Amino acid sequence: MASPIDPTSAAFLLTENRNMPMHVGGLQLFKKPEGAGRSYAREMYEASLDVDEIAPLFLKHPYRSARTAGQLVWKPDDQFDIEHHVRHSALPKPGRVRELLELCSRLHSTRLAWERPLWEAHIIEGLRDGRLAMYTKTHHALVDGISAMRLLQSVLTTDPDKRGMPPMWAAQPGTRSSRSDDADEGSITDVPVHALRSAMGITAEAVGMPGALVKTISKGLRNETSALSLYAPRTIFNQQITGSRRFAAQDWPVERLRAIGKSTGTTLNDVVLAMCSGAIRTYLLELDALPESTLVAMVPVGLNAKQSHLASAEGGNAVGAVMARLGSHLHDPADRLKSIHASMRDGKEGLSSMTPAQIMAMSAIGQAPAILTPLLRMQGIVRPPYNLIISNVPGPRSTHYWNGAELLGTYPLSIPINGMALNITCTSYDGKMCFGLTGCRRTVPHLQRLLTYLDDELKALEKAAGI
Amino acid sequence: MASPIDPTSAAFLLTENRNMPMHVGGLQLFKKPEGAGRSYAREMYEASLDVDEIAPLFLKHPYRSARTAGQLVWKPDDQFDIEHHVRHSALPKPGRVRELLELCSRLHSTRLAWERPLWEAHIIEGLRDGRLAMYTKTHHALVDGISAMRLLQSVLTTDPDKRGMPPMWAAQPGTRSSRSDDADEGSITDVPVHALRSAMGITAEAVGMPGALVKTISKGLRNETSALSLYAPRTIFNQQITGSRRFAAQDWPVERLRAIGKSTGTTLNDVVLAMCSGAIRTYLLELDALPESTLVAMVPVGLNAKQSHLASAEGGNAVGAVMARLGSHLHDPADRLKSIHASMRDGKEGLSSMTPAQIMAMSAIGQAPAILTPLLRMQGIVRPPYNLIISNVPGPRSTHYWNGAELLGTYPLSIPINGMALNITCTSYDGKMCFGLTGCRRTVPHLQRLLTYLDDELKALEKAAGI
Question: Which of A426, B9, B93, B159 is disulfide-compatible with A392, CB 3.0–4.6 A?
C-alpha cells in the first residue's frame, strides 16, 4: 500500500544529491555489561536482528513510477532484508577513537539508496579500550536530527538489569515513553517521539506554500530586528561543498561548563557557544582566514507556549532560532562570552516579540536551509544571514542502558549543505556535554583540530572566570 | 569531456536494479611480508591511496541529463575522491574466514551509485591467522568478470622484493604486460587487458542488432545440436532472485584434481564440473529438491583460431560455450564424471562445427544472459537452456606478489540474475584451484554448505579413481 509523502519530506528527497546527502546520524558509545564475553558485540548484533516486526517508519521507501503518475510515494518494502540495514563492523588497528571517527565519516558520506528503507545501523567493535559503538543513519525525510536523537534514547532504560529490550527499529505495542526526564533551559525542549516530524511539520508549511511564509522571513531579515542579522561575513564554511564528510566528536563534563556560567552570569548554552567561538577563531586564524567582523551562528532555541503565543497539539512547545554573534573577532575569551550572552539575550527577547508566523519562519530557516535557500534567493536575499548552525539539544541526565550495556556518550552527526560546510550539534547526557562536528572534508580541512581547540577554549574560559 | 557509452555497457547499466546489481567482484588473500609490523594493513591502504593519476577507466561515471539529450554518456568525475573508492576495513571477532565471507557478501550486495565512478576496493584486516584480504568491486559496464580478474593480476609481479608498485586503479605509462604466463586447456584462454571489454565486444554486437544474431541463437537452440540442450529441469536456482547475496570460497590443490583426471582419462575442467555436480546433488537432495533429470551447466570454453574459424585482432582466440549435462541424477561419482566428460567432448566437437556467428552467439548467451533473456523470449524461447553457469578461468601458475605481500589465493564473485540464482567461477593460481560461489541469499539458502559438499565430492572422486 502506497501512502503519500508530505511536501517537506519530498523536498528533502528531491534536493538531495551526491554532494548533499540528507541523512542525520548518531554515534553512541556503550560499555559492555559485567561478565560480557569476547563475542558480546556479535550477541548485541544478533539481538538487534531478532525483531518480530519492523516499525512502519523503518519499512517504507520512496517510490515513483508511471503507476503513481510520477508522484513520489512511500511504499512498504516487500523484500525487506534486515541484514542490509543492520550491520556488524569492526575497526582497523590500533582501534583508537580516531579509527572510529574515520569509519563514521565514511559511513556518513554515502547516500541512502531510495530502493530500500532509508536507514542503516552499524554495531562496531574493535575499540582498543573495549567499548562498543553504534552508528545510525536515518534520512531527514523520516526524522529530523532532534527526533532521531530522541528515537535513539526512547529504547533505552535506566534499569541496568533489564534485558530483552528491542532495538529502535522494532514495532512496539502502544506508544513509547519518550519524553526525556529533564530539559535544559535556553535550548530546544522536548519533542515527543510519536509525533516524529512535528518540528518538520512547521517547515512543511513553509515549503508547501512558499508565498506568505517566505515573505515573512524575508521581511524579518530585511527589518534587521534584534533577533536577526543580515550581515554574516563570508568564511571558508560558506562555499560549495563536496560529498566527502569528516566527523569529530568529544565530550566534556557539564559541571565544568556550568561552573563558568555560574561565575560569569551566563547560561550553559552561552558557554557552549563561547567554546565553539574560540575554537573556530583559532582554527580560522591558523588558516589565515579569520574575518574581521564576527561570525554569526544560527542557534535553535526552545520557547514555551506563552513566549511563542503558540500552543501545539502536543502541549505547547515551539522552536525558534536566534542569530548569535559569536564575537570571533574579539581577542579575549571573556569578551567573546560576554558578547555571546548579550546577543543571545537580545535574540530571545526579539523572538518573544515576534508573531507566531515569524517564529515559525525562523524555525523553518534552521530546519531546512537547503530547501529555503533557493526560496530566499527568489526574494532577493542572496547571502545566508549566518555562517553555521550550532544546536544544543538537552538529553537525559541519568545513566541509561540497552540490555545491560551502559550508554557512555551520544554524539550527533548532522547535514552540511552548500554554503554551510560545518555543523556543530551538542547534546547533554549523564553529566557530559557531547559535541558532534560534521563537515565537508574538503571545504573544512583538518576538522578534528577543532576538538583540541574546543578543549583549549574551555580551559581559557575557566581561567577567565577565575576557576 | 563526455564520451559515448557503447550499447552493451548501457544495457548493463539500464537492466540493473536492486535485485540484480551488475558488478563483478574479486577476493584476494595476501600474506604479509617478513618483518611487517602491526600497522602493515594501514601502510598497504595508504600505499593504495598514494596514486599520481587515476586510470581513465576508474575515473568515469555514467551521466545523463537534458544537456546530453537524455543519452547516457561517460563523464570524468571532476570531484573524484579516492577515499570514497578505496577503503580500509576490519573483521569482527573471531576473525575467521566466515567473517570475511560475510563481509564480502554484504559488500557485494550493494549497488554502485551512478553519481561516482563504478568501483570500490576494500583492504581488510582482522583475519586471526594474520592474512590480509582485498575485496574489489567493478561494474560490468567497465569490465567483464574475466577481464576484472586479469586486471587484478596485471599489477602483480613474481618478484617478492619489488616495491613501489602501483595499485590497479593507477594510470600507467605504456601498456601493461597482462598475458598470464600460462593457460590451461579446455578453458577460456588469455584475454588481453588493454582490450578490456573484448569478450564483451561480441555481446555488444548481439545486443546492438538483435535481429540476425539472436535468430542464430534461437535457431541453434531449436536445432538441438549436440552443443546445446534445450531441456534443463526447473530447480530452486531458476527463479526470481532478491538483492541479498551470499559468497562462499575455498581452494583445493590443482594436483589432486589433476590426479583424478589422469587416472580416469578426463580433463581438469571435467573434474571441476564433477565436483560441482556432486556438491549440487547433495545440496539439492538435502532440500528434497533434486530433479529427476540432469542439471545442465553453461560452461564457457576457449577455442583456438583454427577451431573457431575466427581470428580476432588480438591474435586469435575466441570464446564459446558448451551446455554440459552434469549427471546430477546419477548416484555414482564415477558415472557423473564419465557423463560430464562425454557431454563436454560432444559439446566442443559441436562447437568446432559451428559457424563463427553461431559461436559468437553462444558466447553472447554466456556473457549477458540478463540482457539476452528478453530477446530470446521474443523468439519464443521461454526457458533458459541451462541451470547455472560454471566458469573456470586459468590464472598464473607461479607465486605473485604486490609490494612484497604474497598473493595466497584469488576468488571471483560473480553476478546472479533472475532465473539464475547461483554462479560458480573458478580460477587456478599457484597450484590451487580457487572456487568462488555467488548466490542469492534467499533463493539459495545455506550456500556455504556447498563448500563442504565440494570437499566431500573431491574425496569421493579420488576414491572412485582409486587414488
Answer: A426
Domain ranges in chain A are 3-176, 191-395+412-464
Nine cell digits for residue B171: 594510470
Nearest alpha-carbon partner for A160 in A26, A32, A28, A27: A32
- C-alpha atoms less than 13 angstroms from C-alpha of A459 in its C-beta half-sphere: 6
pLDDT average, residue stretch B36-55: 93
User: DSSP string covering B169-183, please?
Assistant: TB--SS------S--
Task: List chain A residues with CB under 8 Å of B63.
Answer: none
B30: cell is 595476501
User: Which residue in chain B is spatially nearest to A93 when comparing CA positions?
Assistant: B39
CATH 3.30.559.10 fits B3-176, yes or no: yes
Which residues in chain A are closer than 8 Å to B89, comparing Cβ atoms? 89-90, 92
Phi, psi of A268 (to 5 degrees): -60, -45
B220: which 3 cell numbers?
541453434
Lookup: cell for A378: 527568489
Which burial class, exposed, middle or buried, applies to B26 when counting CB atoms under 10 A from its CB (0-12, 13-18, 19+)?
Answer: buried
CA atoms lying within 13 Å on the CB side of residue A22: 21
d(CA A22, CA A108): 10
Give, in order, the Cα–Cα distances in Å from B144 to each of A270, B16, B49, B122, B198: 59, 15, 24, 19, 9
Query: What is the C-alpha radius of gyration for chain B, rounded to an integer number of angstroms?
Result: 21
pLDDT above 90 as % of chain A: 57
Q: State the ipTM, two decimals.
A: 0.80
The arrangement of secondary structure in B191-395+412-464, i.e. its CATH architecture, is 2-Layer Sandwich (3.30)
CA-to-CA dists, residue B252 to B136, B318, B430, angstroms: 22, 28, 11
| CB-based contacts of B36, cutoff 8 Å, min separation 6 | B405
* pLDDT higher than threshold 60 for residue A179: no
Q: Check for a shared fold between A3-176 and A191-395+412-464.
A: yes
Choose among B83, B89, B244: nearest Cβ to A84. Answer: B244
Percent residues over pLDDT 70 in chain B: 77
